[in-house]
Amino acid sequence: MASFFNILFVLLAWTASSALAVRNVKVQGSDYVNNATSDRFQILGVAYQPGGSAGFTAGSGIDPLSNGTNCLRDAALMQRLGINTIRIYNLDPSLNHGTRCFSLLPHSDARITHRLLDMCASIFNAVGIYMLLDVNSPLPNESLNPGDLTSSYNAAYLNRIFAVVEAFKNYPNTLGFFGGNEVIQNPGSQTTSPPYLRAVTRDLKNYIAKHSQRNIPVGYSAADVRDYLADTFAYLSCDIDGSSSDPSRIDFFGLNSYSWCGKDATFQSAGYDILIEMFGNTTIPVFFSEYGCNKPQPRVFDEVQALYGPNMTGVMSGGIVYEYVQEASNNFGLVDLYDNGTAALRGDYDVLQKQYNKLDIKALQSGNASATALKSPSCSGSLITESDFSKSFKIPSLPTGGQTLIDNGIQNPNNGKLVPITQTAVKATVYASNGGTIKDLAIKPLAEDQSNTPNGQDTSGSASTSSTSASGTSTGSKPKSTSGSGCTNVHFFLATLAFIAFAFQRA
């Protein structure tokens, strides 16, 4: 009986390993660099959180990467747009990140159940799109409480953030983890929070070093609070005791910036010149972890040419547009999503696509000679300019039980793995901004050493204008499962083998 299970295990392992994979991107000084090609990697990203924070609830079994059908649709649209990175804020690390087509599979052998579909991460991997993941969530014990840092920094919290690492560490398109987002923002947070942010960074990096086969960068996403921005960057990116291997030092720094607003904005009026001066001596990658001011409407995205132009690329590593999905509470979305699985592009999608198509991608991928020229400074109170910003580099010790988690790993980790993507066509109806239906929408898997880039496509211009628009579909029922979810014949074949094995085991 053991031999049958061994054969089945080999088949399942082969299926997972046969999936094409992007090459890891590493931090090299102030740049991201493709491990295979040594090309510089500039982030052309979009925030991806369908439903917003309100769409993430405990026990729902749903997060942005849990539905393969939706991910296939969205990845196809992002690939046409030219996106190479998505940022995801709220994740459930206990989920399998793709449609669970094997929900009826017997759970008697962990070697089988651990090969359940990881479709979403694999779809984005196939089209050359990397993932930047926030480890925190708005749920209790899943983020630091700035008003009660001592109590909220506990073993339960560490178990949560380590679980996110476990869920995503095996995907080659995991670009990095955000250890915090806009923690330093409210009055008083600049005094109490910085040491805890370094503690979380240390803990994540030590856990990754112990339990991951590769180094995965850990960073921070800052609010654009100019009074404390330079101090936040200096505090988090310096080396304690002058050691460049200090695990409490962030590997990258993101800035949520909305200062470029409208067609009359300029490099100077948006304060981009100040940012370049502020980060000019950076020794880690710096990028916009959110950008895209939405006042006035419509957005023109002229900042794209500045961000990826010669005045900024020597310092900055790109940015992440906020956001992919239109939320009812704001007006930042590029795409409207409907309950019946259909989608409709908004005008902002077209404008951003045109801006991306103007970029010189070869120039962006060329090496940055100054990327490794500087050494990170040693931590000192002299780096801090504001009198009320923390000058203490005494980092909190691990809470009770924390070292055990790092040494032994969390219990029952949910480790994701790539699966093959053999279904590429999108079955859902998707409408262009002109109301026409987009024809032949599909993902196009890339070679292993490629990331997605803008390719000159005009998605709305290729749509048929004779079709019915998407208006009025928001209350429609969800469509029945189709092959567009990635539930392919090979997986059903393997499921059948699993059932046979289960029957033999019971016999």
In helices, the fraction of residues equals 25-40%
Radius of gyration: 23 Å
Determine the number of helices (DSSP H or I, runs of at least 4 residues). Answer: 15
What is the makeup of the main sheet? 8 strands, parallel, barrel
- Report low-confidence residues grouped into runs of 5 or more: 4-18, 99-117, 466-498
Could you say which structural class the secondary elements and strand pairing correspond to?
Answer: alpha/beta
Which strand order spans the largest sheet, edge to edge or round the barrel?
4-5-6-7-8-9-10-11
Q: What is the tally of beta strands?
A: 14
The run of helices and strands is HEEEEHEHHEHHEHHEHEHEHEEEHHHEH
Give the DSSP E fraction (strand runs of 2 or more residues): 5-15%
Task: Characterize the quaternary organization of these chains.
Answer: single chain
Distance between the termini: 10 Å
Overall mean confidence score, pLDDT: 86
Outline: globular
